C-alpha cells in the first residue's frame, strides 16, 4: 500500500510514521516545509504540501497513492490572536481538506482518513457521554471548522470510488505532548502549586499509542469504509488524576491546592482565563462502543500502561 500522510512532522505524524513502515510499500510524508528527519527510511520520501500548494502539484503527488491519512490542520489555540479565527480555521481545516479530497477522487485514491476532533461535537458533556448517534454541536471556531471539514469530505466522496473514514480524538497525550497539555505539565514539572485539588470531573483522553493503532486499523479494515469513529482510552479520569500521573512520570509530587470551584471560576474570569479553567474543570466523556464493535477493536493500552510506556520511551 502506498500511503500519503499530511502533517507528517507533527506530533501524531512523528509517532505514526514508524508504525506505518511495516504496513506500507511507500510513504509520502508531507508537511509545509517539505523536509523531515524522522524516521530515516528508503520507504519514506518527504514532500511539501500546504493549503497554498497548486492543484497540479497535489495531483502529481497523489499519483499511485492508495490511502491518505490527513493529519494536517490549524490546531486549536487557547489564546488565538487571529482577527478572524473562524475564517483562518476554515481555510486550513475545511477548504483545504475539501480540495485535497476532490483531487484524491480524481486520482482514484481508495481511502481518505481524516483526523477530526471531538470538539466537532462540543466542548463538554453532562448527563451522558458523546456518542456517534449524537448530532455534532461545535461551540468554537476550531470545532466548527472540523465539523464542516467532515461534511465536505463525505460530500466530495458521495457516489465516488474513494471511501472516507473520520476519526474524532479528544485530548491526545504522550511523550513530549504539545499544546495546552504541555503548558500544564510544565507547571507540574516545576513543582508549582495548582488550585485544582477539589476538581472531581471525568475526562476521556487518548494516548498517542491508542490513536495510532486505530488509524492503522482504519487504513485497511473493510468495515471502516464511510464510518465516523470516536476514540479514547475508554477510561475517563479526573484532571487531578492526570496531573498525578504526570507528576509520577517526572519524579515529582503534584501540589494540588483544594480551592473551591466557584473561586476558581471567579479568578479565571478576572484574569481572562475562563476558557482554560472550564476545560480543566468540566467533564468530557465518550462512548466508543461503535468503534469497538464495528472494527472489533480495543484500545491496546490502558492509562496505566500508556504512562508506563511513556516512561520507557522517555528513558530511551
UniProtKB/TrEMBL annotation:
Organism superkingdom: Bacteria
Organism: Motilimonas cestriensis
Pfam short name (any one): Epimerase
Domain NAD-dependent epimerase/dehydratase: 3-227
InterPro entries listed in its UniProt record: Epimerase_deHydtase, NAD(P)-bd_dom_sf, NAD(P)-dependent_oxidoreduct
Taxonomic lineage of the native organism: Bacteria, Pseudomonadati, Pseudomonadota, Gammaproteobacteria, Alteromonadales
The protein's name in its UniProt record: NAD-dependent epimerase/dehydratase family protein
